[in-house]
Design brief:
Layout (H helix, E strand, L loop, with lengths): L1 H21 L2 H6 L6 H31 L5 H23 L7 H22 L1
Length: 125
């Protein structure tokens, strides 16, 4: 039971964080000032892609936890791989976006790592 609570909390946090990546996309692009249309499209694509990836991870864990046996081997593979993916994304963000002065990018690795830990604990408990 506690494992499912951890998984649901992590899934909710990361899905909401994914939405939080998508909503301000226009403001993020505008924050770069006068850049080419190609660069605007690339930044837009990357911001939305990360948001969709985070949202997908959250929804996947939510669906597996609610519709399958959360203790099954298949479910644990989902939790572990999602956790590892979030750790990889946290490292990438720590080496790139978190080195900027923008607060949401600075806290992003912490959120991703926290949710990864919740998923890993959910798989092990």
């Amino acid at each position: 039971m506690i494992n499912e609570i951890l998984l649901y909390i992590g899934a909710g946090i990361i899905a909401l964080w994914g939405i939080a990546h998508i909503v301000p996309t226009k403001a993020i692009v505008n924050g770069f000032g006068a850049i080419s249309e190609d660069n605007k499209r690339i930044i837009t694509m990357e911001s939305i892609a990360e948001g969709l990836t985070l949202g997908f991870i959250g929804v996947l864990v939510l669906l597996v936890t609610s519709l399958a046996d959360s203790q099954s081997q298949a479910a644990n593979i989902v939790y572990l791989t999602c956790g590892v993916m979030l750790l990889i994304m946290a490292i990438l963000t720590a080496l790139t976006g978190a080195r900027t002065s923008i607060l949401p990018y600075k806290i992003c690795p912490v959120i991703k790592t926290t949710v990864a830990v919740l998923f890993l604990l959910g798989a092990m408990l």
